[in-house]
Amino acid sequence: MSNNKKKKLVLAYYLYKKKQKEIEKRKRSSWVHPILLEREKYGAFQTLFTQLEEDETKFYNYFRMKKETFQLLLTAIYDKIRHEDTDMRKSISPAERLAVTIRYLAAGNTFSDLHYSFRMGIKTISCIVQEVFEALWETLSPIYMKLPSEDEWLTIAKNFETNANFPHCLGAIDGKHIRIIKPEESGSMFFNYKHYFSIVLMAVVDTNYNFVFIDVGAYGKECDSAVFKETEFWKRIVGDKLNIPRPKQLPGAGSELPYVFVADEAFALHQHVLRPYGGHQLDSIKKIFNYRLTRARRYVECAFGILSNKWRILHRPLNVSTDTAVNIVKTCCLLQNIIHKVEGIANNATDNASSHMVSTLCHLPRSHSTRGNVTANMIRNKYAEYFMSPVGRVPWQNQHA
């Protein structure tokens, strides 16, 4: 056989094998595993959902919310997550899409776990949860996490005065690390002082453990004060665009003082942000002020505890893209607000949490730029003096001096 014929035969064989591989690849791309084909018969939604609806306790344990709340969410985003049936296949219903997403957050399962229980493709689940996150945030955040009006700020302040004995307080501020798997090509930007990778959740919370404001996604290496000063919330404080009520007299006193937010020692002192006095050699006035401020600030710590104990997805590092991780945290915070406002906080505040509301989320590192200007220091001193006055003191505070 001549060399030309051999070359032609080799070439023909190569083209034949290439063609066979392309055919096989097309077959595989359109192939569906039998497990997924039986979703309508054996999937978790088809086998469990109807029975769960008949048992309120089981429904709550599975979805971490009442069925009325689930229905409220479904009604709100139904049109945004509804897909048309095609000649090839029947679309996944909005109820099933929402069920997969809520279960993902509530149980902390991976997409692989849900793949087997709900009998859906992993890629399909990934697309569904992302779609539902965006629909929930777009539809419900303007209702359940909107910027308070002046009257709503006054209501929040009244609750702090009643529940925490801290007048003129508009909210408690803090930040927490949310564990993530290292994003690709991110270097050390997300690597925090605790030696793991994270994004930052910065929040302002009221006395009902609701998130008045959140900012999610800052690099884990940043400190509390630095993250806070990059938020839209801080820019609105500085620009006087937050609807904060004008300064008023404290109850029973003659001094006019501004409304404030309370924070820990990591934050810089500002005329609208109070932090504790620093140092160890403090007089009784400063010690009592620090105690009173801590009583008001505890609400943000408890809110983080409720968040992480209800939504178990936050108990493990988020093995998703950074954008999806941000959407997960935003959705969990939004759902907490919705559940508290729809169901009340009596049961949810202690739901599967310890008596001390221990959170799996970690503190941010402390900032060194904590000095305030003369006005801010004067305001803090006046609050401290008020807490020592007959009208401003509480009977038990001297035990902490």
Explain how this protein is built.
- There is one protein chain.
- This protein is an alpha/beta fold.
- It has 3 domains: 1-26; 34-144, no CATH class; 150-400, no CATH class.
- 51% of the residues lie in helices and 10% in strands.
- A hairpin with a 6-residue loop joins strand 4 and strand 5 (256-257).
- Helix 6 (67-81) crosses helix 7 (94-107) and helix 6 (67-81) packs across helix 9 (122-144).
- Residues 352-358 have low confidence and may be disordered.
Percent helix, as a range, is 40-55%
How would you classify the helix and strand content by structural class?
Answer: alpha/beta
Instruction: Tell me the β content.
Output: 5-15%
Counted up, domains total: 3
Short description:
The protein is elongated, with a radius of gyration of 27 Å.
Please give a handful of descriptors for the protein shown.
401 residues, alpha/beta, six-stranded mixed β-sheet, two-stranded antiparallel sheet, 15 helices, elongated, DDE Tnp4 domain-containing protein, HARBI1_dom, metal-binding
Give the arrangement of secondary structure elements.
Blueprint: H1 3-29, H2 34-37, H3 39-42, H4 44-53, H5 56-63, H6 67-81, H7 94-107, H8 111-117, H9 122-144, H10 150-164, E1 169-179, E2 198-205, E3 211-219, H11 224-228, H12 232-238, E4 248-249, E5 256-257, E6 260-262, E7 273-274, H13 284-310, H14 322-343, E8 362-363, H15 374-388
Parallel strand pairs: 1-6, 6-7
Antiparallel strand pairs: 1-2, 1-8, 2-3, 4-5
Helix pairs in contact: 6-7, 6-9, 7-9, 8-9, 9-14, 13-15
Keywords: Hydrolase, Metal-binding, Nuclease, Nucleus
Subcellular location: Nucleus
Protein name: DDE Tnp4 domain-containing protein
